[in-house]
């Protein structure tokens, strides 16, 4: 199928002016037929997380207050874009979506946090995608809205759901080709899916890139374009003081290594399915839509990469040893790593030193205390929070001399062309 997938993140639609700019990009830069995968409006997911927290803490008035602010923000946004019958139509659609969450938080909290999270937070993408769909129609484009939950099927591991590739592939190929016959643009949501029991799930924070890769892979698309607020994939974080440059070309292997090591420009699960189908990934700047950006694919020639610095903040450093001072066995390691997975903790760096297991961990769901408690009977565990993981590709210690200076190195690990440091940052 001659098809493009385009993904627009929350920053690209954070205000009405940006939304109109996305419409112009679709008009001028996107070849049809196309599937557009959209995130929630900028900061909406964070706002919805406040609703979840208040609801689960059984503070109904606070939950309602946060919820009403989100509703009002979306309604005001629409009033800047539409008028008359068009405004009435979109407000009615958004209201129908808000009512579902309103009913949900009216009921007493009697489930688990992760389940409630997915039912509430998933509404952000439903709202933004409907708004973009109406904007495209108002501009005269042939657009059709699709509920991603009808085709993205997952297990019930809420907040980090695993995709049912077989069923999702079947449904995507049953539904989307027929829609494209009569509508050249399909607008759908990133980040969200659905269980066999019809409960909403999410694929992990920033998971819209992964959603776009799922659509691209299942439909054997020509390419996937991810529109960001940076020129492309960079050699470092452009928001930091260190000079960075754009990488015009990346192999799948290099891009996969970078994302697995903590580079946040692309969700870690995005690259592998694209590589398996040899679908090229284009990372482009929605603020400068005529620029080329970065192309990720297999290239005939070898690419010589400059030093690439990846900074990953907010990690937890654990030191684990057996309480009776016995040797840390393979069985002990298996027990610990199984609990890392059980508590949805991300293993980023590990090393055994003098019968102590040193771990640098990501804790996106704040489960580290449960992890420690589960191991506390047999193991002595110390933790340090707010640890920075610094990763250097294709360089030497001299390239990060300033970043290391004055900080305590908790762990250093080298492999092939990669060096990593877990750092305790000095004040």
Describe the overall structure.
Helix 8 packs parallel to helix 10. The longest helix is centred in the N-terminal third of the chain and has 23 residues. The protein has 427 residues and is α/β, with parallel strands linked by helices. The chain is 39% helix and 24% strand. The protein contains 13 helices and 16 strands. The model has no long low-confidence stretch (mean pLDDT 95). The protein folds into two domains: 293 residues, Carbamate kinase; 117 residues, VC0802-like, CATH 3.30.2130.10. The strands form three sheets. Strands 3-4-2-1-7-9-10-8 form an eight-stranded mixed beta sheet, sandwiched between helices. Strands 12-13-11-14-16-15 form a six-stranded antiparallel beta sheet. It has a two-stranded antiparallel sheet with strand order 5-6.
CATH class of the largest domain: Alpha Beta
SSE series: EHEHHHHHEHEEEHEEHHEEEHEEHEHEE
**Poorly predicted ranges:** none
Beginning-to-end CA distance, first to last residue: 55 Å
Biggest beta sheet summary: 8 strands, mixed
The overall strand count is 16
What's the arrangement of strands in the largest beta sheet?
Answer: 3-4-2-1-7-9-10-8
Described by the principal axes of the CA atoms, the overall outline is globular
Backbone structural class = alpha/beta
Mean pLDDT: 95
User: Which architecture of the largest domain would the CATH scheme give at its second level?
Assistant: 3-Layer(aba) Sandwich
CATH topology of the largest domain: Carbamate kinase
Number of domains: 2
Q: CATH superfamily name of the largest domain?
A: Acetylglutamate kinase-like
Query: Taking Cα atoms only, what radius of gyration do you get, to the nearest Å?
Result: 23 Å
Number of helices: 13
Beta-strand content bin: 15-25%
